[in-house]
Amino acid sequence: KNFTFTQTTENYRNDSLIKTATWYEAIVFPYDFRISIGDIKDGNAMIQKKDSVYNFRKGNLVRRAPKGEDLTFMLGGMYFIPFDTVKTRMTKEGYDISRGHETLWKGQKTYVIGTDVAGEKVNQLWIDKKKLVVVRFIKYDKGVKFEGVFENHIKLGKAWSETFVTFYNNDKLFQKEKYYDTKINTQVDMRLFDPYNFYK
Known about the structure:
- This protein is mainly β.
- The protein has helices at 71-74, 83-92, and strands at residues 2-13, 16-28, 32-37, 45-48, 52-57, 60-66, 100-105, 108-113, 124-128, 134-141, 144-151, 154-156, 159-161, 164-169, 172-184.
- The chain has a 13-stranded antiparallel beta sheet with strand order 6-5-4-3-2-1-15-14-11-10-9-8-7, with no helix packed on it. It has a two-stranded antiparallel ribbon with strand order 12-13.
- A hairpin with a 3-residue loop joins strand 4 and strand 5 (52-57).
């Protein structure tokens, strides 16, 4: 029902590492998510609520925007909401859920949602056939290909979590994420997710 972890984040440009940071993250499924960038007391954070994302610098709100691509939904939130709602959300995100096929991904049998042929340039969601977890997504927006790959899954209670993630823009690496100190179903302070009374 909830998940906390520490994340090492590496940013890349032209295949070269340009920045490394430590993020502290907390999720209460299906909708609440917070990233504290560096020490939580510094007040630099991103909070996601059901329909919005809020960015803070030194404890001050600097940006609020509608929530776009939602990894919280794909990587856990969808298991906590009705299936018809999940299908509607996937369609809204641009996945053609009427199309699909099976393939091998990193040696594992995998479902591909969104296309029934390999290599088609359309939005796709790749799901491990055995674990039923997302292992890859591909999205196209204004001619840009955005891809995420989720690996090194570990068993946490009755669920699985990725612990290594890579993101690509037009097939060029721009971010790596490594998770550690993972905990589930702990007591999470819900004040962390209140954008109107920022907590640090």
